[in-house]
Design brief:
Elements (H helix, E strand, L loop, with lengths): L12 H11 L3 H8 L3 H13 L7 E5 L5 H5 L7 E6 L2 H13 L6 E5 L12 E7 L8 H11 E12 L7 H21 L4 H11 L3 H10 L2 E9 L4 E8 L4
Parallel strand pairs: 1-2, 1-4, 2-3, 4-5
Antiparallel strand pairs: 5-7, 6-7
Length: 244
């Protein structure tokens, strides 16, 4: 029997937001558990890749969730970090973390849609997103919006799941990701949909050359991709093509 009917589609923003609202309280714990803590290393690596390019940058973190990447971005010594997300409960969890870390004056988390970013053109030096582009209802529109709010020669960074290709790592990964992860996620989150949605959204997500073409179409150049942990995740970067 096909049980995928209850898995939200990326173009159903209401369902996606509700799904993340429902798992917000366990989201960070499950991220660390299901990735064996490697997600922290991935974010740290992403921040290192974009560090040193701008002095005290203004940073936008799209689909910020509970603000994990926004907090990691403190290593950039930013002027300010703004995180946006469609899930208010995820944002609420993030605000608690930010207060505990004494970062209330440096990080702001607000409701916002990746495809209609509530900021003017040429506002930020860096626009970044971790594990969020595959949740965009229209990835090209979301990336184009990130381009719009960047200053000329501003940097875009995407950290996203990808699919390993080498034997036997590929086979082990696919078994864990499609069979074990949904079960473990359901047990700890008490949500039978969210951690079935995760592997399905990754499998459907364009990557490698396809995603690079999408980034180019959004107005970026100097695009690079770095594989992490055998290709389980990838970091993409690009520079906004200068406009008048």
């Amino acid at each position: 029997m096909d049980n995928r009917g209850d898995i939200p589609k990326p173009d159903d923003k209401g369902a996606i937001g509700s799904m993340f609202d429902n798992i917000a309280g366990r989201y960070d714990f499950l991220n660390h558990l299901l990735s064996f803590g490697i997600d922290r290393l991935w974010r740290a690596k992403a921040v290192r890749i974009i560090s040193g390019r701008y002095k005290n940058p203004k940073v936008l973190d799209v689909a910020t969730g509970t603000g994990a990447l926004a907090i990691a971005a403190m290593k950039l010594n930013p002027f300010h970090v703004t995180g946006i997300d469609i899930s208010e409960k995820m944002l609420a969890e993030g605000r608690v973390k930010i207060i505990k870390k004494g970062l209330s004056g440096r990080i702001e988390l607000i409701p916002g849609d990746s495809e209609n970013i509530p900021y003017s053109d040429y506002t930020f030096d860096i626009a970044m997103v971790a594990f969020g582009v595959r949740n965009f209802s229209d990835p090209l529109k979301g990336l184009t919006e990130m381009n719009r709010v960047l200053k000329n020669r501003g940097m875009m960074m995407v950290l996203e799941f990808s699919k390993p290709t080498c034997f036997p790592f590929k086979q082990v990964y696919y078994f864990y990701f499609t069979k074990l992860l949904p079960v473990i996620g359901r047990i700890f989150s008490k949500n039978r949909t969210a951690y079935r949605y995760l592997p399905e959204s990754v499998m459907q997500f364009p990557e490698s050359e396809q995603f690079v073409e999408l980034i180019e179409s959004a107005g970026f150049s100097d695009i690079s991709r770095k594989k992490l942990t055998g290709g389980v995740a990838s970091i993409y970067t690009g520079i906004k093509t200068e406009t008048q």
